[in-house]
């Protein structure tokens, strides 16, 4: 590609830029963002080749635009870019929810929504900002695309090829499937971890409790160290799917509470053993996928 | 000490033995256990100096006996050892619950219960058995003792000194306090992690869900890889405290469900932010405790 635009040059956008450069997949990368300090840092680190505050300059001759700003910004950013969107440009994003992003893109782009290919790279780190960006962040990780009926094949392929150049493996789901899946395996666990830490921190003897929390608690609650603003936005954006998963989980806990109250050890053990077995199978599948020869 | 007896030479008992030997704190260690294979392995690894199936042989002249078998075995094991319990011997344990262990000890030892000092080392690994034992397992970790009113000071001190020789830091709580604390920071998180994995594994599209589960899910559910039998026993042994913590958590989730259903982003963000802040403070406190100079 000749020109790529990254809107939001933090961990996600910055790592995409570094990986494309490393792969030799792009000639020039333009950064856009709200914070002059972040843009200056991204320039200094060599993540972007130039920075601009002008959507008109940014969009001129762009092959691909990646939105890597908070999901709630998708609509306003697309509205600013839309007047300068050329026919040959494809826009994609890196948001953790997809139905709301699609709705925002339809509202902002109207009949040109076919130029927007929604995406979600499944990768991250605990640190943020351009200094956290890594050229290797996406190697071996999945990127889920949720193409629209309006997307021309060649635009979907351009986005897919960019992520493949970063080392990612492309999966495709509908936006609805995507949001249901991530409500279960990501958004609900985040809510549950935040809930536990807040529950404990709000008790009068919280200090005593934290004193005895150990490595199991640390791992269980690691995701409660994530950005509250970002997870507020994700929770609201994927509210309906998340409510569905939360209700299923509440029913599960209520059933286990009854087993415990009845001292029904056999029933509890069945739940625990089924969970242990399923988790073990999952971990084995991951390890075999990483090292395909290990199972031979 | 001249002679220490370890009942159950797996990860916990074996690591205690290796650490005492490394510290030069004991002359002879005797292993007892149900499995001849495990005992042979513990002998071969040099964890114990001898192994016996005879409680009479084991207890003769013993300074200290550590019970490191599953908690539900505490009563039967003490009943077998009691006839041979000499006046100078102290018995301790490594169980994850304490009120039930104290009750079992009172039933088995009667008026000699003063010779039983309940304990709980806060350390572990994902692997089990004598091969997993490490001389360094307890270094810098807490061991909680929950002494009884009947315990003579010198017997409590003998147990405390043994754990200190292993590198552990001694804390003292009542058995009731201990069980309430660990219901909140350990037993509840285990139940919650098992609940989530079983919930997801029971869905018709479980395969699709596990395919997209990533590192956040992996850490959140790591403790669902623990032994179902062990956690069934712990759940039942600490049932009342665990029910109390589970009810508080269910109330917290129900309240957060209402925030989500009302799209009350500000309320959700307050919970998330409070949790993030509390977890960050806890992690900082741990890191400062590990490296006391780092805060200067």
UniProtKB/TrEMBL annotation, chains A, B:
One of its GO terms (molecular function) is prephenate dehydrogenase (NAD+) activity. PROSITE patterns: PDH_ADH. Residues 2-290 form the Prephenate/arogenate dehydrogenase domain. Keywords: Oxidoreductase. GO terms for biological process: tyrosine biosynthetic process. This is Prephenate dehydrogenase/arogenate dehydrogenase family protein. It comes from Massilia horti. The lineage of its organism: Bacteria, Pseudomonadati, Pseudomonadota, Betaproteobacteria, Burkholderiales.
């Amino acid at each position: 590609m000749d020109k790529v635009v990254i809107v939001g040059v933090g961990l996600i956008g910055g790592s995409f830029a570094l990986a494309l450069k490393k792969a030799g997949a792009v000639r020039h990368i333009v950064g856009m963002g709200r914070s002059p300090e972040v843009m200056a840092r991204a320039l200094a680190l060599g993540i972007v080749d130039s920075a601009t505050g002008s959507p008109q300059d940014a969009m001129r001759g762009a092959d691909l635009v990646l939105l890597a700003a908070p999901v709630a910004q998708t609509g306003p950013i697309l509205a600013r870019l839309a007047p300068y969107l050329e026919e040959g440009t494809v826009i994609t994003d890196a948001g953790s929810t997809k139905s709301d992003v699609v709705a925002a893109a339809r509202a902002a782009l109207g009949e040109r929504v076919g130029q927007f290919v929604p995406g979600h790279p499944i990768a991250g780190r605990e640190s943020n900002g351009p200094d956290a960006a890594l050229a290797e962040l996406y190697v071996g990780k999945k990127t889920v695309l949720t193409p629209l009926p309006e997307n021309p094949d060649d635009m979907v392929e351009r986005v897919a090829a960019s992520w493949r150049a970063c080392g990612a493996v492309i999966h495709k789901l509908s936006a609805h499937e995507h949001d249901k899946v991530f409500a279960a395996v990501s958004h609900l666990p985040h809510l549950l971890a935040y809930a536990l830490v807040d529950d404990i921190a709000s008790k009068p003897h919280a200090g005593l409790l934290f004193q005895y929390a150990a490595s199991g608690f640390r791992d269980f609650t690691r995701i409660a160290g994530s950005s509250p603003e970002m997870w507020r936005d994700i929770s609201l954006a994927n509210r309906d799917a998340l409510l569905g998963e939360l209700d299923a989980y509440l029913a599960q806990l209520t059933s286990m509470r009854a087993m415990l109250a009845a001292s029904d050890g056999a029933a509890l053990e069945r739940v625990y053993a089924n969970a242990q077995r399923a988790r073990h199978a999952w971990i084995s599948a991951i390890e075999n996928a990483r090292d395909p020869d290990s199972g031979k």
